[in-house]
Design brief:
12% strand; 239 residues; six-stranded parallel sheet
Length: 239
């Protein structure tokens, strides 16, 4: 995989560039702990909470593709609370839905994107709504020229519509599909769809992260290359 083979790079944002799991887990933990342990007196592990959230958001995204992401978050936290026999407080539910702005960028994201932007057209493919994603774009230094949100696509990844829209946008700039590389953390929402489209894809597999690793054929996902961080990817890719 050589930089001369590509003119554009598109990105999955959350999990790849934005470190969303700590904030999500903290809010899930506060919600469930406020309910007490389950009927057997057993508190859920962090892994169990993240797994329940991952299943819930995937369910609601498939059930109602037109729902904006804040509402998906609100429904997901209620689902997670219910899995341990509780009910979410309406204020907690609303706060979780509005929490996107507190999700921080990984330490290497801004610098890596800035280096890549010197040479490539950059794009973002995200399941976020337009308004929420604007908060994350600001954290990343506004590097993207191509934007495909779930609000624009009218669907949530792993729908192929996101990828088709981004490739169409880039084709309008004279960049053909085979000159576009995708970079992503989610095996379910990004790597596997790229496989189905025959699009080159790099997997950023940051240690200890779990969201997006199961469901929709994630076990069949085969990236063209895997790196532990954006920094590692950029260093090897450009040098």
């Amino acid at each position: 995989m050589r930089p001369d083979d590509f003119d554009a790079i598109t990105f999955d944002v959350y999990g790849t560039l934005i470190d969303w799991e700590p904030s999500i887990l903290a809010r899930l933990r506060a919600c469930v702990d406020s309910q007490g342990a389950d009927g057997a007196g057993v508190a859920p592990t962090d892994a169990a909470l993240i797994d329940a959230f991952d299943r819930a958001r995937a369910h609601y995204q498939m059930l109602s593709p037109a729902r904006p992401y804040p509402r998906i978050l609100e429904l997901a936290i209620a689902y997670v609370a219910g899995e341990w026999g509780g009910r979410v407080d309406p204020d907690q539910q609303a706060a979780f839905g509005a929490s996107v702005g507190e999700w921080v960028a990984y330490d290497d994201s801004v610098a890596a994107l800035a280096r890549l932007k010197e040479r490539f057209v950059l794009g973002a493919l995200t399941n976020m709504d337009d308004a929420s994603f604007a908060l994350s774009r600001a954290r990343l230094g506004e590097p993207f020229e191509i934007l495909v949100t779930a609000e624009r696509a009218g669907a949530y990844k792993p729908s192929l519509r996101h990828f088709v829209l981004s490739l169409t946008d880039l084709a309008a700039r004279g960049i053909p599909p085979h000159r576009v590389l995708h970079v992503a953390q989610s095996r379910r929402a990004d790597v596997r769809p790229c496989n189905l489209l025959g699009q080159p894809v790099v997997h950023i597999d940051r240690g200890g992260k779990a969201l997006g690793h199961t469901g929709f054929g994630a076990e069949l996902a085969v990236p063209d290359a895997t790196y532990p961080t954006m920094e590692a990817f950029v260093e090897e890719f450009l040098n």
